[in-house]
Amino acid sequence: MLHSAWHKRNWHVIVADPGSGKTMDIRDMVKTAGSAAILAVTSPKNNDDEQALGDQLFGALGVPSRGHWSTRKPKLMGHLHHYGTQCLIVDDAQDLSLQHLMFIKELTDQGRLQYDHTLGLCLVAAGRGDTIPLKETLDFPDIMWLQFRRRMDKLEPFCRIAGHTSEEVRDILAALEWSYEAGDTSVRAETLEKAAELLVLRRNTLRLIDGAGPDGAEEARANGTEPQRETVQGSEQQNTTETVGTVGEQV
Fold first, then answer.
1. What is the pLDDT, as a whole number, of residue 6?
2. Beta partners for 124?
3. Where exactly are the structural domains of the chain?
4. For site-directed labelling of 28, which of 2, 7, 128, 236 has its Cα 20 to 30 A away?
């Protein structure tokens, strides 16, 4: 999904359990891209002002944050264009405020109008269960959020990386049990291998929320129409589309 946001300049919201390795994946992605092609920042904590997010972006570019915000703000998109930034990634996106989201839209609007420069966007959030951070805000009927939502990928706007169920966690713990009866002082190799397989099981599973999915895209292209979104509300699992692939392909 991160690759899609980068190469296709798509907009996505990705949600995964806390501690599932989101930040590590982002760090690896930035190293792969090199230079400032991908700009990754962390959502400001306890600061809802747009300047807090703007200063994060300036810092990621290595541009000094000197001067009044009102004079620096219009120059930010110019710097992104100059450095060849193609995609913005915001980690801990569940902490983004309305002002931060409006600033992101304003910044990308400026890029399109003044520089003919389209930016991909990936908001990576932490969440448990069926919680999809930011979805409620982006579903508001206001023009602002309708425009924001219209820019999101039509097939995969919101995606959740499935976590382990309680039963799977028990299986993993059982696979890691110590072999005291055999007098071993470490975990048996075969049980460690089994645990490793279980640990990566869910990292390869993406659940699409409120998107048509790959099958819908193929059907839409065959009919010459735009793919339609199927909204999934709350815990209505029967309307959820699941796609399975490798982490490298999906995230």
1. 63
2. 14, 91
3. 2-153, 165-251
4. 128
CB 27 within 8 A of CB 42: no
* H helices, E strands: number in the chain: 11, 7
Instruction: Say whether pTM exceeds 0.85.
Output: no
pLDDT of residue 80: 95
Tell me yes or no: is domain 2-153 CATH 3.30.70.260.
no
User: Could you tell me the strand order of the sheet in which 205-209 lies?
Assistant: 38-42, 87-91, 120-126, 11-16, 158-161, 205-209, 241-244
CA distance 234 to 192: 36
CA-derived radius of gyration, the chain: 21
Q: Which residues of 52-62 are buried (b: 16+ CB within 10 A; e: fewer)?
A: bbbbbbbebbe
- For helices 143-151 and 98-115, the axis angle rounded to 10 degrees is 60
> Identity (one letter) of the amino acid at 162?
A
If residue 24 lies in a helix (H) or strand (E), which one and from where to where? helix 22-33
Q: Which residue has the tokens 């292209």?
A: 221
Mean pLDDT score of the chain:
76
Among 132, 127, 169, smallest CA distance to 22 is for 127
pLDDT digits (tens, 9 = 90+) for 145-157: 999 999 888 888 8
- C-alpha–C-alpha distance, residues 207 and 226, integer Å: 21
Tell whether the model's pLDDT for residue 209 goes beyond 90. Answer: no
User: Could you give the CA distance from residue 104 to residue 90 in angstroms, rounded to a whole number?
Assistant: 10
pLDDT computed for residue 180 by the predictor: 47
Query: How far is C-alpha 200 from the geometric centre of its chain's CA atoms?
Result: 19
